[in-house]
Design brief:
7-stranded mixed sheet, 3-stranded antiparallel sheet, 373 residues, alpha/beta, Aspartate Aminotransferase, domain 1, 41% helix, 14 strands, globular, binds pyridoxal-5'-phosphate, Aspartate Aminotransferase, domain 2, 15% strand
């Protein structure tokens, strides 16, 4: 069989202002090309323990079980739920966008009985709404997304929601895929039982790793499970054994991806979380002001608008998909369409991690202005 002579790989350098991935930080790009290490090499094990310390810093936790799973953010979703749920468990899924609904579906596939409470796209839950739902049955756990990438809304009051869950004997699983490294995530102060994220949003690394952290209640449940978790690959006890303790073989993790994530986290730690969040917010404000000046108001109220992901209302008479395609073709700028019912009504503009820079915002606003003329 003849193999066609494909050309050298030469992808365009895009300015990634969509809902993820964000742009890979140049320092991360450099370390990705370091020589590979075996998955049990003492040098790699040392890198894991540094990465773990950095992950604890961004998650603001002392949880011993804090790792980066081999897999994208979805592996974090699956791992959190697979490790905690046994068939027949009752789960409360708080759904205020696509990713909340995905968590509900994963829990159902694991054999849980799932009750959903839902908010229209672009809205968030009040603590009272969640507390009322928690009281209805003896749930084992509840799921909620901190930063809904499908709408650009930050679910506020996570600490109070976690307290309500615990008052009712319920565990809380928090999706921090778009929030970690972009806005404050305080796992210990908020008393979160399990949270996961992804390497490609605000952490400046390519996709392929899912940071996860497990609090004491969740760890106890996992350690006392009657039956092992059905997924060998996502089994957190196996991760604990591979990352800590005996360093027993579990799977052949990608050394390169771990080099990258460690570097992305190091960049954040060097700047400091507070400074990073303030800079990302001030960049987002620059975008919001620029959009307002063009009569393209952000869709989410300021009170719970996410700096890493802005939804902006498409002006009347404009074809949002044509503008998006032209931004990509003519300016190498990626943004996304709205999600679901918002598909033709909003654009989704991400300022995640290394994508969030003044020069990108200036270029994007100028390009948009030109295209809307
Ligand atoms: C909030 C949220 N959760 C989960 C995911 C799934 O992550 P991944 O696409 O890396 O599997 C995403 C991806 O965009 C997300 O935004």
């Amino acid at each position: 069989m003849n193999v066609p002579a494909f050309s050298d790989l030469n992808p365009p350098t895009r300015i990634l202002l969509g809902p993820g991935p964000g742009m890979t930080h140049p320092r991360v790009v450099r370390v990705l090309t370091a020589p590979t290490l075996g998955h049990l090499d003492p040098e790699l094990l040392k890198i894991y323990s540094e990465e773990q310390e950095l992950l604890r810093y961004v998650f603001q936790t002392k949880n011993e079980w804090t790792f980066a799973l081999s897999g994208t953010g979805t592996s974090g979703m699956e791992s959190a739920l697979t490790n905690l749920i046994e068939p027949g468990d009752l789960v409360l899924a708080c759904v205020h966008g696509y990713f909340g609904a995905r968590l509900a579906e994963i829990a159902e596939r694991l054999g849980a009985t799932v009750d959903r409470i839902e908010k229209p796209l672009g809205q968030i839950f009040s603590v009272d709404e969640i507390e009322a739902a928690l009281k209805k049955k003896k749930y084992k756990l509840m799921t909620i997304v901190h930063a809904e990438t499908s709408t650009g809304a930050e679910q506020l009051h996570i600490k109070e929601i976690a307290a309500a869950a615990h008052k009712n004997g319920v565990l809380i699983v928090l999706d921090t895929v778009t929030s970690l490294g972009g806005i404050p995530v305080k796992i210990d102060e908020w008393d979160i039982d399990m949270a996961y994220s992804a390497s490609q949003k605000n952490l400046g690394a390519p996709s392929g790793l899912a940071p996860i952290t497990v609090g004491p209640r969740a760890r106890e449940i996992i350690e006392k499970r009657a039956k092992p978790v059905s997924s060998f690959y996502l089994d957190l006890k196996q991760y604990a054994n591979y990352w800590g303790g005996a360093h027993g073989y579990h799977h052949t993790a990608s050394a390169s991806l771990h080099f990258g994530l460690r570097e992305g986290l190091r960049v954040i730690a060097e700047e400091g979380l507070d400074h990073t969040f303030a800079r990302l917010r001030s960049n987002a404000e620059m975008l919001w002001n620029g959009l307002e000046d063009m009569d393209i108001p952000p869709f989410i109220p300021m009170e719970y608008r996410l700096p890493p992901l802005t939804t902006a209302k498409v002006p009347a008479g404009c074809d949002p998909h044509e503008v998006r395609a032209r931004l990509l073709d003519e300016y190498n700028i990626e943004i996304a369409a709205g999600f679901g019912a918002l598909k033709d009504q909003v654009w989704r503009i991400g300022l995640m991690g290394y994508s969030s820079r003044k020069e990108n915002i200036t270029l994007f606003l100028a390009a948009l202005k030109e295209l809307l003329k």
